[in-house]
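Example record for the data management plan.
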Amino acid sequence: MKKVLLPTVLLALACAYGQPAVTEADVDAWMESLSNWGRWGEDDQKGAINLITPETRLAAAKLVTKGISVSLARDVEKDEAVDNPRPFKHSMLNVGLNNPSQFVSDDYQVSYHGYAHTHMDSLCHMAFEGKMYNGFPQAEVVAEGAPRLAVTNFKEGIFARAVLMDIPRLKGVDWLEPGTPIYPSDLDAWEKKANVAVRSGDVVLIRTGRWAKRDADGPWDVSSKSAGLHASSAKWLKDRDAAILGSDAASDVSPSLVDGVGQPIHQLVIIAMGMPIFDNLDLEAVAEEAARQNRWEFLLTAAPMAVGGGTGSPFNPIATF
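Corresponding structural encoding:
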């Protein structure tokens, strides 16, 4: 049985980081004040992706000056681990010396939501009080899939400016220890240090160093303890009109430091703001390339699988400098 952090414990943890505590009532209020519901019409299903415009795409294309591309996808995890209870299944078909065909093929099976596989969360992935983004009812999602807010709304792909926020580099460490919250002041400090500013329509990528720690020390229960954004960072993202949030875990700090709300960043970003989330990105290689060039903005391209009714998709985002 998991231990539940009492409000007094959460308050003490917040104070230990020199930050005021956030309550469930605060998050409930932010669900209203940070909402994008109706901003692009009552029937809108793309949410903050609407902020990626022809103009922002053209500007993002101009960021390509070196022709260097880096994948942001973690190699698929086939071995079961505490952070990968549902491994990627890969079986070979039509192989061996007795194969009568010219072709070799294989079969893939993946349950991608969780903390192992690089994937995109669509806007039907989460609901609050029976409502998904833009007020669509959660009850619409049935065994056959989600008739609205599905990942097929993004099958034309993502082509946008991305800003990498390397918080371990900001703090002079290889990785953030699990459970470390990232506050708006940290995001401001990174913008100043990297001489970069998040703009409307950007993809914001938060590096915590999760995979560097895993490669060094082995897997741990990321769902119970991981570095990530504190709930108060949601307003920072809305103020800058970011289009997409991504990280090397699930974006939320865990424990959340908000009594009664398990994943406030997911809740506020997906449901209120209508921002898709990129989970479990591998940001190690792109952080190295960005540091080598001393350049923390680049073109990001990505496209989910066009699965009708799907709540998301595994995918392979590409950074191009």
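Summary line stored alongside the record: The two ends are 46 Å apart (CA to CA).
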